[in-house]
Design a protein that fits this description.
Layout (H helix, E strand, L loop, with lengths): L1 H4 L4 H13 L14 H12 L10 H5 L18 H13 L9 H8 L2 H12 L17 E2 L5 E2 L2
Antiparallel strand pairs: 1-2
Helix pairs in contact: 3-7, 5-6, 5-7
Protein backbone atom coordinates (compact mmCIF):
# COMPACT_ATOMS: atom_id res chain seq x y z
CA UNK A 1 0.00 0.00 0.00
CA UNK A 2 2.86 2.38 0.79
CA UNK A 3 4.15 2.06 -2.77
CA UNK A 4 0.78 3.23 -4.07
CA UNK A 5 0.66 6.25 -1.76
CA UNK A 6 4.28 7.43 -1.66
CA UNK A 7 3.94 9.65 -4.75
CA UNK A 8 0.67 11.31 -3.67
CA UNK A 9 0.70 14.83 -2.23
CA UNK A 10 -0.50 15.53 1.30
CA UNK A 11 -3.44 17.48 -0.14
CA UNK A 12 -4.46 14.53 -2.30
CA UNK A 13 -4.13 12.12 0.64
CA UNK A 14 -6.24 14.47 2.74
CA UNK A 15 -8.92 14.52 0.03
CA UNK A 16 -8.93 10.72 -0.07
CA UNK A 17 -9.17 10.51 3.73
CA UNK A 18 -12.06 13.01 3.83
CA UNK A 19 -13.90 11.05 1.14
CA UNK A 20 -13.69 7.76 3.02
CA UNK A 21 -14.42 9.39 6.40
CA UNK A 22 -17.70 10.77 5.00
CA UNK A 23 -19.00 7.37 3.88
CA UNK A 24 -21.73 5.95 6.09
CA UNK A 25 -21.69 2.18 5.68
CA UNK A 26 -24.45 -0.13 6.88
CA UNK A 27 -23.55 -1.78 10.15
CA UNK A 28 -23.69 -5.52 10.73
CA UNK A 29 -26.13 -6.99 13.22
CA UNK A 30 -24.66 -7.90 16.59
CA UNK A 31 -23.52 -11.49 16.99
CA UNK A 32 -25.45 -13.62 19.42
CA UNK A 33 -23.83 -15.96 21.88
CA UNK A 34 -24.78 -17.86 24.99
CA UNK A 35 -22.50 -16.85 27.81
CA UNK A 36 -22.66 -17.51 31.53
CA UNK A 37 -23.85 -14.44 33.44
CA UNK A 38 -20.59 -14.19 35.40
CA UNK A 39 -18.56 -14.13 32.16
CA UNK A 40 -20.82 -11.39 30.77
CA UNK A 41 -20.46 -9.38 33.99
CA UNK A 42 -16.65 -9.74 33.93
CA UNK A 43 -16.51 -8.51 30.34
CA UNK A 44 -18.73 -5.52 31.05
CA UNK A 45 -16.61 -4.69 34.08
CA UNK A 46 -13.43 -4.66 31.95
CA UNK A 47 -15.15 -2.44 29.39
CA UNK A 48 -16.46 0.08 31.93
CA UNK A 49 -14.06 -0.09 34.91
CA UNK A 50 -10.34 -0.31 35.30
CA UNK A 51 -8.65 -3.27 36.95
CA UNK A 52 -6.18 -1.72 39.40
CA UNK A 53 -4.65 -5.07 40.38
CA UNK A 54 -3.39 -5.57 36.82
CA UNK A 55 -3.11 -1.86 36.01
CA UNK A 56 -5.60 -2.29 33.18
CA UNK A 57 -7.60 0.71 31.99
CA UNK A 58 -11.25 0.33 31.15
CA UNK A 59 -11.77 -0.10 27.41
CA UNK A 60 -13.82 3.11 27.56
CA UNK A 61 -10.81 5.08 28.81
CA UNK A 62 -9.22 4.93 25.37
CA UNK A 63 -11.99 3.85 23.01
CA UNK A 64 -14.57 6.32 24.35
CA UNK A 65 -17.76 6.00 26.32
CA UNK A 66 -19.62 4.69 23.24
CA UNK A 67 -16.62 2.48 22.27
CA UNK A 68 -16.60 4.17 18.85
CA UNK A 69 -13.01 5.39 19.17
CA UNK A 70 -11.62 8.80 20.01
CA UNK A 71 -9.74 11.40 17.97
CA UNK A 72 -9.40 8.97 15.06
CA UNK A 73 -6.40 7.47 16.88
CA UNK A 74 -8.20 4.79 18.87
CA UNK A 75 -10.36 2.43 16.90
CA UNK A 76 -14.02 1.63 17.23
CA UNK A 77 -14.60 -1.67 19.05
CA UNK A 78 -18.20 -2.17 17.95
CA UNK A 79 -19.46 -4.02 14.90
CA UNK A 80 -16.39 -6.27 14.81
CA UNK A 81 -16.67 -10.06 14.78
CA UNK A 82 -15.63 -11.92 17.92
CA UNK A 83 -12.92 -13.92 16.14
CA UNK A 84 -11.42 -10.76 14.62
CA UNK A 85 -11.16 -9.13 18.06
CA UNK A 86 -9.47 -12.22 19.50
CA UNK A 87 -7.07 -12.33 16.56
CA UNK A 88 -6.13 -8.68 17.02
CA UNK A 89 -5.34 -9.31 20.68
CA UNK A 90 -2.96 -12.04 19.54
CA UNK A 91 -1.30 -9.66 17.06
CA UNK A 92 -0.80 -7.08 19.84
CA UNK A 93 0.53 -9.75 22.21
CA UNK A 94 3.12 -11.06 19.77
CA UNK A 95 4.20 -7.65 18.50
CA UNK A 96 2.84 -8.22 14.99
CA UNK A 97 0.68 -5.18 15.63
CA UNK A 98 2.19 -2.14 17.35
CA UNK A 99 1.53 1.50 18.05
CA UNK A 100 3.83 4.42 18.61
CA UNK A 101 5.20 4.67 22.14
CA UNK A 102 3.68 4.29 24.55
CA UNK A 103 2.14 1.17 23.04
CA UNK A 104 -0.67 0.97 25.57
CA UNK A 105 -2.68 -1.60 23.65
CA UNK A 106 0.32 -3.92 23.47
CA UNK A 107 0.63 -3.75 27.25
CA UNK A 108 -3.11 -4.27 27.72
CA UNK A 109 -3.16 -7.27 25.34
CA UNK A 110 -0.34 -8.92 27.27
CA UNK A 111 -2.13 -8.38 30.60
CA UNK A 112 -5.46 -9.81 29.44
CA UNK A 113 -5.96 -13.52 30.01
CA UNK A 114 -7.38 -15.67 27.22
CA UNK A 115 -10.57 -15.99 29.30
CA UNK A 116 -10.85 -12.21 29.67
CA UNK A 117 -10.31 -11.67 25.95
CA UNK A 118 -12.86 -14.33 25.06
CA UNK A 119 -15.38 -12.64 27.36
CA UNK A 120 -14.57 -9.17 26.01
CA UNK A 121 -14.77 -10.24 22.38
CA UNK A 122 -18.08 -12.01 22.97
CA UNK A 123 -19.52 -8.99 24.82
CA UNK A 124 -18.27 -6.43 22.28
CA UNK A 125 -19.50 -8.41 19.26
CA UNK A 126 -22.97 -8.72 20.82
CA UNK A 127 -23.49 -4.99 21.42
CA UNK A 128 -26.03 -3.00 19.43
CA UNK A 129 -24.41 -0.26 17.42
CA UNK A 130 -25.08 3.43 18.07
CA UNK A 131 -26.71 5.53 15.32
CA UNK A 132 -23.27 6.71 14.22
CA UNK A 133 -19.89 5.08 14.58
CA UNK A 134 -18.06 8.39 14.35
CA UNK A 135 -15.27 8.76 16.92
CA UNK A 136 -16.01 10.72 20.07
CA UNK A 137 -14.82 14.34 20.02
CA UNK A 138 -11.55 15.16 21.77
CA UNK A 139 -11.74 15.56 25.52
CA UNK A 140 -10.14 18.56 27.17
CA UNK A 141 -9.47 16.53 30.32
CA UNK A 142 -6.94 13.71 30.62
CA UNK A 143 -8.61 10.33 30.91
CA UNK A 144 -7.59 8.37 34.00
CA UNK A 145 -6.15 4.98 33.20
CA UNK A 146 -6.19 3.78 36.83
CA UNK A 147 -2.64 2.57 36.40
CA UNK A 148 -1.05 5.69 37.83
CA UNK A 149 -1.18 7.77 34.67
CA UNK A 150 -3.55 9.49 32.30
CA UNK A 151 -3.91 9.85 28.58
CA UNK A 152 -3.94 13.44 27.37
CA UNK A 153 -6.37 14.01 24.51
Amino acid sequence: MANLLDHLSDDHLSDIAEHFAAIELPCPSPQTSRVAPEVWARAESLVRQCDPARKLPACMACHGERLTGMNLAESCLLGLPRDYLIGQRGAWQTGQRQALAPDCMGRVAKALSAEDMNALATWLSAQALPPTLRPAPPSAQPLPLCCGSAVQR
